[in-house]
Design goal:
The protein is an alpha+beta fold. It is built from 8 helices and 12 strands. Helices cover 40% and strands 22% of the residues.
Amino acid sequence: MKKRIVCVILAALMLQGCGANKDNEETLVWESIDETAGDELGENASADSENGGTGSKESGNAGAEDSSEAADKEQGEKAGEDLTFEDLANYTYEFCSGAGGWSDEFEIEKDGFFHGYYHDSDMGDTGEGYEDGTMYIAHYSGHLGNLEKVDDLTYTMTILDMKTDEKQAGEYIEDGVRYVIAGPYALSACDSLTIYLPGTKTSKLSEAEMSWIEPVYGSSIIENDAFTGIVLVNNPNQYGIGGFERMPVSKRAKMEYDTYKESYDYYAERLAEAATTADMVQITSKQAEVADELLNELWLMVKYNTPSGQYKPLLEDQRQWLKDRDAHLKDISSQDLGSMGTVDYNDYLATETMNRCEKLLSYLVAN
């Protein structure tokens, strides 16, 4: 399943080979919306990669992880007696219009943290610079709490907080596509969700709620007028959301890596054909962003799929890697190399981050 795919990856995968005019293009600055993992990933280090790293934030906020663990513990203690957030973490949740249409998918982690990705497209909505259409996207995250039992097959929970990536605001054009930053759909205007476990009779849901489930999923989630899978309902909007077994982490990690690596390699091909230093700055910046997004995706999997006794050494190793990487980046920034210095900075950041992703992937696949 594809989730939280960064915008530059969408452009690369959809429009490989498009010769859009890049002269006036602004580079998208991406910053992680996952504050649960803290700043130890170094996701902010690439924020100024077009300027050779000037003004970038320091990495390794040690206090972020401690405060996160305290919040995780508090939320975990609020979980219901039977169903837990750890149970809910075994599923991927989908709200969509069917094949080829818009889709909103999200996942819940064992502490109630959730993260998702919404996308829609209108290839007929074109204009100057975006002849290939318009896409509406949203990366979002938040925390769930107050998991309470209603009966043996029914629970409720509330959305404690939710936000979209504030660093991606408004709209921008890239590779012939206009990207419009939207908001989440499945959880829009929602403060509470109802959870229906397998075995729940479909008659328990309203006609409006079933209209989102039955036409889209049918027999894949319904049998003999009862749900065979888990179903969530956005109570205020009566949206029915299907839950499906989540992929093993090793497969998820490999799939994420392959997706982002394809985009990374796409920019590598463009870099080999770059005619100007300005083009090289733009392209290496994109590579750094792709690698940085992948790093965050993989680290999220490490955090939530590593036994507590093994996590601390991994975190310390990650922080040391960040220190070493940032020290080298600082050295590059201190040299008066002009525009090519920015290319060197971006190239090192992208290459080193992708190498780190490969190491995290190896850990996730092996464990």
